[in-house]
Structures are given as C-alpha cells and as structure tokens.
C-alpha cells in the first residue's frame, strides 16, 4: 500500500536552516519563519530577536493560508479582492491576504505551507520563503 506524501523532518529542517542562514545576513531586519503541514498545523517556527508580535503571528498565518487554500497567500488575497470580498468573509481568522506564504507541493499534492513575516514588503517575505521551499528539494 503506497504512503501518502508528507513533509519529512529532513525537508523541514533543510528549509528552516536555509531560511535562517539567509535571514541572519540582515540582522537589523528581523523576521519570523513558519512551516505548516497539509492540515495547517505548525511543524517548525523560528524568529529573530526584536521582532514585532504581529510579524511573528503573520508568518504562521501566511504558511497556514497557503496550505489551507492551496495557493500562495498573496495570490489568495488577490483572488479574494478580485471577487469583491475580504478575507474575513471566508470565516477563518487564520487566513491572510498578504504575500509571503507559499504552498508546498509534490507531484500536485499539497504537503503544507511555508511563510515569512517581518520584512517591509511581502515580496521580500516571499523571496525568503522561496529559499526554504527550494531547500526542500521536492
């Protein structure tokens, strides 16, 4: 019987290590990094010193949104706005419309989400999340 694909400890560790290594290059711009599984449950989290509480929580929300909605968090926000709605209409306070979360997929199957919060732009958050995603070697 084949096993369902999942995020392995090694993949999660590789992603977190890669993001941390890149993030500490700019210690004056602290960030938080989060990885959730396919059910939205947190499997890894790290934050740099002197980071605002909002950014800490937002990294988790971006990862969660990506996993639950099956699309990157920024794209999800764009789709919600294009439909004339707001994220609160979805009924889940963990969802966010902000860029910085990426879906983790393998062979078309959603394995989870990865999110970053703290940089001045969502694009930079997403760029760091992509470093982690690439380190997973999916």
Question: What's the structural blueprint in terms of helices and strands?
Answer:
Blueprint: H1 9-23, E1 32-37, E2 42-47, H2 53-69, H3 73-82, E3 101-106, E4 109-117, H4 122-135
Antiparallel strand pairs: 1-2, 1-4, 3-4
Helix pairs in contact: 1-4
Shape type? globular
Q: Please indicate the percent range of residues in DSSP E strands (runs of 2 or more).
A: 15-25%
Helix content: 40-55%
So how many helices?
A: 4
Strand order of the largest sheet: 2-1-4-3
CATH architecture of the domain at 29-106 and 115-120 and 131-138: 2-Layer Sandwich
What is the level 1 CATH name of the domain at 29-106 and 115-120 and 131-138?
A: Alpha Beta
List the uncertain runs: none
The CATH superfamily of the domain at 29-106 and 115-120 and 131-138 is known as Haem-degrading domain
Provide a descriptive summary of the structure in words:
- There is one protein chain.
- This protein is an alpha+beta fold and 138 residues long.
- It has a domain of 92 residues: Haem-degrading domain (Beta-Lactamase).
- It has a four-stranded antiparallel beta sheet with strand order 2-1-4-3, sandwiched between helices.
- Helix 1 crosses helix 4.
- The model has no long low-confidence stretch (mean pLDDT 95).
Based on the model shown, name its key terms:
single chain, alpha+beta, 138 residues, 41% helix, 20% strand, 4 strands, Beta-Lactamase, globular
Concise description?
This protein is α+β, with helices and mostly antiparallel strands and 138 residues long.
